[in-house]
Design a protein that fits this description.
It is built from 17 helices and twelve strands. It is of the alpha/beta class.
C-alpha cells in the first residue's frame, strides 16, 4: 500500500485543518504541520508541529529539509498567493511532491475548492466548452442548496482568535513573520468598528438604492449593469487580474462605461460582504464617475439582495468573483476581466468590454449547468471551514480527492497567465 505523508501549511482561521488531520491519520496518513505564527497554533493545539521562525529567504531551504526528512508525498495549503505558499509550490515541484491548494468554493454556499498546484489562472480545469460538457455528461444534477449553518459572528470571533495572539505576542515568538493581508489586523478591526457604528445609516441607504434599481417594471428593461466588488487585497486581484490593482480596474470600467454605454443604462457597484470599509469605495467611485461625466448614472450599494439585483441586471461585470458563477447559473451575461475558472467561449462574454455595454453575450443555454456539474466532478467538494458538520464533510471529501485526484484535469500546469482585457483596460 502506498504510504502518504501529508504536510500542512497555513489554513483558515478555524479548526478545519485539525479535523482534516485527525481523519487523515485514521486513514493511515502520516501528518505533519508547520506553524508560522501563534494564530496557526491556536486551532492546532494540543497537537505538535514544527515552527518556522526564520526570514523568508530561509524558508525554501528549511522546507526542503523537512520534506526530505519526513519523506513528504503531499503538501496542502490554503491559497497559492501567500509568499511562503508560492515558494512552497516551487520547492514541491523540484522534489516531485504533489501540491493541493484549497480555498472557499467556486460554487456557493457550502462548497470548498481543492486543486493541484493553483487556482484561477493557475487552474488545470479545462477551458473548452466541449470538454466541460463531456465531463458533465452522466453526472448527477448539481445540488447547489445550502447544507450547513454559519454566521458572520462566528467567523469574526474565530478571526479574532487567530490574530489577537499574533498582535500581542508575535513580536516575541515569531519576529520575522508578516501577515499576508494588505493591512495590519488592528487597522482592519478599526475599519470594522467604523462600519458597525454606521450600520443603520448604511442599511437605509442600501434599501433606498435597491428600491430605485428594482422598482422599474421588468418589461421596461433592467437598464443597469452590476459590478460586485471583490476585496482589493485579495490574491485573486493581486495575482489573477490585469494590473493587479482593483482601484485601477474600477476606474477603467467606469471610463469604458462612460464612453460606450447608451445614456439609458446605469452602472451599479456592490461592496463585498466582508469589506472592512477601509477601501473608501463611496468617495472613490463617486469621484471616478464624476470625472468621466457619468456621476448621475453610477451608484454604489453596500448591502442589498444580490440575487434580486442579478436577476434584474442586463449583465454582470466581474474580475473573477464567484458571483460570476452565480450570475451564469441565473442565465445572465457575464464578462470576466481577470483569470477565472469559468471564463471560456460559450459561457462568458468573449468580445471587448466596450461591446459588453451594448451587446452582452449570454451563456449558451446548457453551459451553466454543465459547468457546475464539471466543477463538482473535479475541483469542488461539499463542506466548509466553520461548524462541525461542515468541517467533517469538507475534510472527508478533500481527503478523497487527495487519495484519488480527478483524471479529467490537465496533466500539465498551465503556462503564464495572459489577461486578454489588459490592453483595453489600461488604454487611456
Amino acid at each position: 500500500m502506498h504510504r502518504f505523508a501529508l504536510l500542512l501549511l497555513q489554513g483558515p482561521a478555524s479548526p478545519f485543518l485539525k479535523g482534516l488531520a485527525s481523519e487523515a491519520e485514521q486513514r493511515g496518513f502520516s501528518v505533519y504541520k508547520i506553524h508560522f505564527c501563534l494564530g496557526d497554533a491556536v486551532f492546532w493545539w494540543p497537537r505538535r508541529a514544527d515552527w518556522f521562525r526564520g526570514a523568508d529567504a530561509q524558508w525554501p531551504q528549511y522546507l526542503e529539509r523537512i520534506c526530505r526528512d519526513r519523506k513528504v508525498t503531499d503538501i496542502l495549503m490554503l491559497g497559492d498567493g501567500r509568499p511562503k505558499h508560492a515558494a512552497a509550490i516551487e520547492v514541491a515541484r523540484g522534489l516531485d511532491i504533489r501540491v493541493h491548494v484549497f480555498e472557499h468554493g467556486y460554487l456557493r454556499p457550502d462548497w470548498l475548492t481543492i486543486e493541484p498546484d493553483g487556482m484561477s489562472g493557475r487552474s488545470r480545469f479545462p477551458k473548452r466548452a466541449e470538454t466541460v460538457r463531456a465531463i458533465a455528461a452522466g453526472t448527477p444534477p448539481a445540488d447547489l442548496g445550502g447544507h450547513f449553518r454559519s454566521s458572520f459572528l462566528t467567523y469574526a470571533l474565530l478571526d479574532l482568535a487567530y490574530h489577537v495572539p499574533n498582535v500581542l505576542l508575535g513580536w516575541l515568538v515569531h519576529p520575522n513573520y508578516r501577515a499576508h493581508g494588505p493591512v495590519h489586523p488592528v487597522i482592519e478591526y478599526a475599519g470594522w468598528i467604523g462600519k458597525a457604528l454606521a450600520a443603520r445609516r448604511r442599511g437605509r441607504e442600501a434599501r433606498a438604492i435597491e428600491g430605485r434599481y428594482l422598482s422599474a417594471a421588468p418589461e421596461n428593461g433592467s437598464r443597469f449593469f452590476l459590478f460586485p466588488l471583490q476585496l482589493p487585497g485579495d490574491y485573486q486581484i493581486r495575482l489573477h487580474a490585469p494590473v493587479g490593482d482593483l482601484y485601477r480596474l474600477v476606474e477603467s470600467v467606469i471610463r469604458s462605461f462612460a464612453r460606450h454605454a447608451t445614456m439609458d443604462k446605469r452602472l451599479l457597484f456592490k461592496t463585498h460582504p466582508i469589506d472592512n470599509g477601509l477601501s473608501g469605495w463611496p468617495r472613490r467611485i463617486a469621484d471616478m464617475a464624476k470625472s468621466q461625466g457619468v456621476g448621475d448614472r453610477v451608484d454604489l450599494i453596500d448591502g442589498g439582495d444580490l440575487d434580486r439585483l442579478i436577476a434584474r441586471a442586463d449583465g454582470i461585470v466581474t474580475v473573477n468573483s464567484t458571483v460570476g458563477l452565480t450570475a451564469l447559473l441565473a442565465g445572465k451575461p457575464v464578462i470576466s476581466l481577470g483569470a477565472s475558472i469559468y471564463d471560456m467561449p460559450g459561457v462568458t462574454h468573449q468580445e471587448s468590454l466596450a461591446s459588453f455595454w451594448t451587446e452582452p453575450q449570454a451563456p449558451q443555454a446548457d453551459m451553466p449547468d454543465a459547468l457546475a456539474r464539471a466543477l463538482i466532478a473535479t475541483v469542488q467538494v461539499r463542506g466548509g471551514f466553520i461548524g462541525k458538520q461542515a468541517i467533517q464533510s469538507g475534510a472527508h471529501e478533500m481527503l478523497e480527492r487527495i487519495l484519488s485526484p480527478s483524471r479529467q484535469l490537465s496533466e500539465e500546469p498551465p503556462g503564464p497567465v495572459e489577461f486578454r482585457y489588459e490592453a483595453e483596460l489600461t488604454a487611456q
